[in-house]
C-alpha cells in the first residue's frame, strides 16, 4: 500500500526510528507523488564541502533554474517549495530535465529546472539510513532519463566560487573522472523541518553495521537503499544519445562579413581568441574564468562585456550561446587560441543575436579589457 508523503508522516517515522539502536528500513513502498513542499539536502560524507548542504537554485534566464550546492558564498537560493509529480521534480511550472552542456570528455550532461519537458529526470522516494546518525530518512533515488532508459546517477562537479554544479552520468559510463562526477544522495526535507537539519559540512561517517547488513539492500555513497522499492515512472530502454547545440562552422567564413567574433573595441574590450574549459584542456580548475556568471537566453557578446566590466573584471567570455563568465585572469594552460581553425570551437550563435558567436560547448569566446590610453585591437588570426 502506498502512502501520501506528508510532514506528519515523516515526523512520526523519524520519532520511531530514534528509539532504536540501528537503522532498520521499513519495507513498504512510498508514493511517487509528494504534494507537500520540500527541500533537498545533499549528502556525501567523503566530501565535507557538499555534505549536509542544501540544493540551491540559481536563475539562469528564460525561467530556467540551475542546480548548485556549496559555494563561498553559497551560489543560488535554497528552495522548499519543490514537489514530486509522478516521479518528476517540479517547482511551479518548471521541471527537472537532463539536457544541454554535454561534456564529451566525462560523458555527463547537465540537470536543471526548465519549462521545457523534453528529457525529464525521474526519481522515486525510498527509505535510507542517514550516514550521520543512522536514523531513517527518505531520499530521492534516481530512476532514469526520459527516452534513455533506466539507470545512471546524479553527481556534481566543481564550478565557480567553490560551488558544485549537478550532472547526469549515464549507465555504464567509464569516461568519468571521479573528481568531475561526485555521486550524491538527495534527502527529502519537509519545508516545516528545514531548521532542524544541518546546513554546513559534516565530518565523514558511515552507516552502522546493522544497517549495512539489512536484507535485500544495496549500499551507495554511505547510504543504504531498499531495493524492493519500484517506480511507476520507469521508461523504455533506449540507445544513449545526446543533443549538443550545433552552430555553423566558421572556417569558410574567415575574412568575410560577419566576423567570427564581435568587435567590442568601442566598449574597451578586444577579442583575444577562443579559450578551452576544463573538458577541453589537460588539467586545472573546472572553469577558465572563475569570477561572476550571468546566464541569459538572449545573451550577446556586448551584454557579456558590459556585465563583466560593471563587475570590475578584465576578462569576459561567452559560452554555450547563453552563458557569460567573468574573471581577472585566465587559468593556466587555458590561454586563448589564435589560429583560424581554433575559431571553429567557438561556433555557437548567441541566443540574443544569431549573427554573433557566443563560444561553444566548453569553449569561451574570450574578450579582454584594453589598457587605458593604449590601442584597443582585436587579435590577428593565422
What do these coordinates show?
- The chain starts with 6 loop residues before the first helix and ends in a 13-residue tail after the last strand.
- The chain is mainly beta and 382 residues long.
- The chain has 2 domains: 220 residues, no CATH class; 119 residues, no CATH class.
- The chain has 3 helices and 25 strands.
- The radius of gyration is 23 Å and the shape is elongated.
- Helix content is 7%, strand content 34%.
- The strands form 5 sheets. Strands 1, 2, 3, 4, 5, 6, 7, 8, 9, 13, 14, 15 and 16 form a 13-stranded antiparallel β-sheet that branches. Strands 19-25-21-22-20 form a 5-stranded antiparallel β-sheet, with helices on one face. Strands 10-11-12 form a 3-stranded antiparallel β-sheet.
- It is a single-pass membrane protein.
- It is found in: Membrane.
- InterPro entries: DUF7909 (IPR057231), Kremen_rcpt (IPR051836), WSC_carb-bd (IPR002889).
- This is WSC-domain-containing protein.
- Keywords: Glycoprotein, Membrane, Signal, Transmembrane, Transmembrane helix.
